[in-house]
Amino acid sequence: AKAKAPATKVAESDDDDDDDDSEAKLVPEKVAAKDSDETTVFVGGLPFSCTEDVLRKDFGECGEIEKLNYPLNDEGKPRGIAFITFKTKEAVVAALKYDGEDYGGRMLKVNLAGQKPEKGKGDKGKGKGKG
Predict the structure, then answer these.
(1) Which of 34, 39, 85, 119 is at a distance of 20 to 30 A from 109, taking alpha carbons?
(2) Residue of 68, 114, 67, 61 lying closest to 90 (CA atoms)
(3) Nearest C-alpha neighbor of 115 from the set 92, 90, 88
(4) C-alpha distances in angstroms, 28 versus 24, 33, 36, 52?
(5) E strands, the chain, where?
(6) CA–CA separation, 93 and 111 (whole Å)
(7) Does residue 91 contact residue 39 with C-beta atoms inside 8 Å?
(8) Res. 63 pLDDT band, cuts 50 70 90
(9) Coil, strand, or helix at residue 59?
(10) Average of pLDDT values for 19-38?
(11) What is the pLDDT of residue 1?
(12) Side-chain half-sphere of 54: how many Cα atoms within 13 Å?
């Protein structure tokens, strides 16, 4: 078993050479294994007045959209987030450039869907559970 581990790592590094090295570092191994996760971006900070059609038009400029998930709350109003699956990785790279941009008066947060945000709650609040 010990001999196989280094061989696997060598194979992974060969695969990384085909892609941008920076992208390989950002994508966790589990996510990299799934093609759809590599082409799906999470978009947060959307204005609540934004419609799916407007979103499809604006992010369609990055590349062809395969699937767009625009979750609504219990009242049928947008939650201000979306998951957009593109047909190409180039479109994903273009969409990621919108991260931090002003969009309808709100700041967009755009990252790969499988990627955890850099900052957030962290470990706070975990482990204090039942009792």
Answers:
(1) 34
(2) 61
(3) 92
(4) 8, 9, 14, 29
(5) 40-44, 65-69, 81-86, 102-103, 106-107, 109-112
(6) 10
(7) yes
(8) very high
(9) helix
(10) 49
(11) 55
(12) 9
